[in-house]
Amino acid sequence: MRELIIVAGANGSGKTTFAKDLVEETRYVFLNADEIEKGLTGKR
Length: 44
Description:
The protein has two helices and no strands. By secondary structure, the chain is mainly α.
């Protein structure tokens, strides 16, 4: 069965840290929406 986990919260709340820790403990894939946007738009 496929799973999708969405991590949401306020700026600076530890979302990325939590997600990266989860990736280390599992075989999940981490997608960072901010990094995807930067790649598509060139914004920094």
